[in-house]
Amino acid sequence: MKTIFLAIFMVITAVSIKAQNRLDNAKKQALENKELILLNFSGSDWCIPCIKLHKNIIETDEFKKLETENIIVYVNADFPRNKKNQLSADMKKENAGLADQYNPKGLFPYTLLLDQDGKVLKSWEGLPAESALAFSKEIRDIQQQRK
């Protein structure tokens, strides 16, 4: 009897943990640390502006400071096309849900700055024209205005 109860408990726990997605986790972290959420929609292996965005902004030290200094929580919703880059079924489903909620037009790249409740504070359609430094400064300024 204990074994059956334990098995049922483990299944229920596993399902509830699985149900929490990256955005939910990001919202919790943002609330705890007074951070913003940066949600980026990209096509990492087919969208040239997306690839440039990641190389010229997201992968820079200046941008990474936003994460290490607890300014933002970064969430990437990627939609790769090449078979070798395909995501798990769960990740595809989660990214599709994020797109339904925040990117119904299917824009790539599309970047959103959200508050801890998921409210959109700022959006960038396409590749931002500014440098990584200017992009990061804009996010810092928005966070400062919210304090």
CATH class: Alpha Beta
Shape: globular
What's the architecture, going by CATH?
3-Layer(aba) Sandwich
Report the C-alpha radius of gyration, rounded: 17 Å
How many separate domains make up the residues? 1
Order of helices and strands: HHEHHEHEEH
Terminal Cα span = 54 Å
Put simply, the count of helices is 6
Strand content: 15-25%
The biggest beta sheet is recorded as:
4 strands, mixed
Looking at CATH, the homologous superfamily is Glutaredoxin
Q: Which stretches of 5+ consecutive residues score pLDDT under 50?
A: 11-19
- Annotation, overall tally of beta strands: 4
CATH topology: Glutaredoxin
Estimated structural class: alpha+beta
Provide mean pLDDT, rounded.
90
Query: How much helix, percentage-wise, in residues?
Result: 40-55%
Strand ordering within the main sheet: 2-1-3-4
